Amino acid sequence: MHDLVVRSLKLACRLPRPLRDALSAIAGTVAWAVAAQPRRNVTSNVKQVLRHFSGEPRALHVQHIARRVFRRCISNYLELFALPRLAKEEILGRIDVVGQEHFEQAIAQGGGVIIASAHLGPFEYLPSWMPARGFEMTIPVERMEDRQMLGMMLQARLSNGVTFVPLTGFAAIRTMVRTLRKRQVVLITADRAVEGQSTVVSFFGAPARLPIGPVDLAIMTGAPLIGGFGWCRGRRDIIEFAPISLALPVQQRADRAALQAALVDQLERAIGTHVDEWVVFEPIWQY
Question: For the chain, what is the domain count?
Fold first, then answer.
């Protein structure tokens, strides 16, 4: 069964994008229907986000958004495995960038840039945009038990020139520091604690454990921390950069609590606006 899924993904990623989108809608709906525990987790996460902004949401509205999350997940995998077949010009041609001035301001500081991101939208297009614009990027990633799927994902991701390192350990820290010293870019997802140091903060109005790594790396190296998020708008893929450390007074940029609070604000804004593209299948609020 597993081999059949892998072969199906390899074949499906060769379809034209409109057909990949249609397939994602069908397969995502099926996955939502049969994957009971992930469905409960997504439903709970979506409900907390909606509750934070507008009170207790209607069950049918939550269900509709949860289905869209599953569809986005399938779409993300198909887009990832299609990447090696795309030219840089084709990748850049389908992306609109919002807030690029924040990225350029951070780069102008001269010490590399740390991008805090989320499991939001077509995540692979942000790592693809950087090398296509001439920047090296390093991303720490969590381990996967499925070695065959991990190999496929790394092969697709390495095709766009990004360096991936294990999420934990001194080797990962050394690699990220070296990247920043070369005035390049490190990207860390900050919306879910997996491995490494984390802290419990108020997230969408309730306690949640989130990683502290992006903040600690920014304080340790002095590199500016910005937000980098992606989502879809019709047939266009959007990348948005948002200021975090450079939006704070100078005296607060090395303040761990202030920097983490500013990061959480940007996560809440991006996820809250595009919760139907927030692809997280683990429970976030457990405290």
Answer: 1
Query: Which region among 18-22, 115-119, 124-128 has the lowest average model confidence (pLDDT)?
Result: 124-128
Q: Is residue 70 domain-resident?
A: no
Residue 203, sorted as left (phi over 0), alpha (psi -120 to 50) or beta, turns out to be: beta
Question: In whole angstroms, what is the distance from residue 63 CA to residue 70 CA?
Answer: 11
Query: Could you tell me the two tokens for 263?
Result: 């990061």
Model confidence at 158, pLDDT cuts 50, 70, 90, reads low
pLDDT band at 207 (very low <50, low <70, confident <90, very high): very high
Specify which residues 226 forms β-bridges with: 115, 243
101 found inside a domain: yes
CB 184 within 8 A of CB 138: yes
Number of Cβ atoms within 10 Å of the Cβ of 8: 12
- Answer whether residue 264 is part of any domain: yes
Domain containing residue 267: 87-277
User: What backbone phi and psi angles, to 5 degrees, belong to 26?
Assistant: -70, -50
Strands 113-117 and 137-141: unpaired
Within-domain flag for 111: yes
Radius of gyration of the chain (CA): 18
In the chain, pLDDT over 70 holds for what percent of residues? 86
